[in-house]
């Protein structure tokens, strides 16, 4: 990763995390198409700094997101702005679930890419963890769709706070379960 792309990556992640808050306040002062244009520009910048390792997974996703943002700009649809978190969740669900049909699920490939030691139990564990995240993204995306029919305050609260808390709870729960699992299977901490 080049040092020039790091600020864009940080801006991208920060902006995506704040997307619901930006939409909430943006809709008070700007038309939906303008916010969609901001999203499109942000996605285009991210597309421009993809590393070779990221391209196989992120290019298709970013193209879908950019097309969605372009349609939002063209239609000026507030509903499409509100649907973006659901699109992201369902896209992640497809990526995680699709990887379960391949020889190695996504999370196992990530562990191997980081050259971490892998216990004999890791492939099965990471298969089920990948499946768990796929289910999480389907549930989270479904709730995100439901929030598009609620007042903007509920949409913002769920997509800007509760969804992140749910993901954090899943991560923390998995971490605690992993400690228990490693003790039960007598697996060293570095595996």
Task: Give the beta-strand count.
Answer: 0
Overall, the morphology is globular
Q: What is the CA-atom radius of gyration, in angstroms?
A: 18 Å
Mean pLDDT: 90
The poorly predicted ranges are: none
Residues in helices, as a percent range: over 70%
Number of domains: 1
Secondary-structure element order, N to C = HHHHHHHH
Structural class: mainly alpha
- Biggest pleated sheet: none
Write up what this structure looks like.
By secondary structure, this protein is mainly α. The chain has one domain (about 5-185). About 80% of the residues lie in helices and about 0% in strands. The longest helix has about 35 residues, at about 150-185. The radius of gyration is 18 Å and the shape is globular.
Produce the secondary structure layout.
Layout: H1 5-17, H2 19-29, H3 32-48, H4 55-75, H5 78-99, H6 106-113, H7 122-147, H8 152-185
What labels describe this entry?
single chain, 191 residues, mainly alpha, 8 helices, globular
